[in-house]
Each structure stands twice: as structure tokens, then as C-alpha cells.
Design goal:
It comes from Selaginella moellendorffii. The chain has 135 residues and is an all-alpha fold. Helix content is 86%, strand content 0%. It has 2 domains: 76 residues; 57 residues.
Length: 135
């Protein structure tokens, strides 16, 4: 179960990365905004990555639930076992990693917001250029 859990976690991380890459590609490529097949293909890649991410996280949740519902886990006093097994250094390391990951998410969200703002400005500029002058 642990190997399958690790596999699903890796798929979820890859899918999340693909979502960001697909969004970046769609938002930074004006050719994908013009309509037709290219636009649908660009957004389809985002949706495909989103579906893979959703499936992987669902599978991962199922595996985690199966591990904790396993008869051997049910017979253990999980709280005391975990407390004894995990030392404070490991907890500190994980907390530090959590903070770093949250900061990375904030940075990536800022970049995404900037890309969306740029996309809006480009769409506004394009629509302004395509508007015929008043007669």
C-alpha cells in the first residue's frame, strides 16, 4: 500500500505541475486566445491535467484510508506509537518544509495573478485595436 501511495502522490505532484505549465502556456500564448481549435486544445490540456490531479488525489486518499483501516493499524495505539516514533527534530524539519512550501505557493499564485492581469490587458488592447474608429 505504501508503494501505491507513493506512486499516487508522485502522479498528483506531476499533475499539479502540469496544471501550472498548461496554464502558463495558455496565458502566455496569444494564438490560443483567438478561438477555434487551438484555444480548445490549450484549455483541454489544463482540464486534462486537472482531471489527472483529481483522480490521483482521490486514489491517494483511498490508500491512506485503507492503511489506517488495516487490521494491524486498528490494533495499535496509533497516537502513542507515532509520538514515540517521531522525534522533535523531524517535526521541526517538517514544519520548516511546510512553511517553505506555503511560501512557494504564495509566490506561484502571485506569478499566476500577474499572468492573468497581463492576459486581461492584452485582451483589452486587442479588442481596442479591433474596434473600428467612430465615423
Amino acid at each position: 500500500m505504501a508503494i501505491e501511495g507513493q506512486k499516487q502522490l508522485e502522479i498528483a505532484v506531476q499533475s499539479a505541475h502540469q496544471i501550472l505549465n498548461s496554464l502558463n502556456e495558455v496565458l502566455s500564448n496569444p494564438a490560443l486566445w483567438e478561438g477555434g481549435g487551438k484555444e480548445e486544445a490549450g484549455w483541454a490540456a489544463v482540464d486534462d491535467a486537472r482531471q489527472k490531479y483529481k483522480a490521483a488525489t482521490t486514489a491517494l486518499r483511498g490508500i491512506v484510508a485503507a492503511i489506517f483501516n488495516h487490521p494491524q493499524m486498528m490494533s495499535l495505539d496509533v497516537d502513542s506509537t507515532v509520538e514515540k516514533a517521531v522525534d522533535q527534530a523531524e517535526i521541526d524539519r517538517l514544519q520548516k518544509q511546510t512553511v517553505e512550501l506555503r511560501e512557494e505557493i504564495v509566490r506561484k499564485n502571485d506569478v499566476l495573478k500577474q499572468l492573468i492581469t497581463q492576459m486581461r490587458e492584452l485582451v483589452r488592447d486587442i479588442s481596442m485595436w479591433q474596434t473600428p474608429p467612430p465615423s
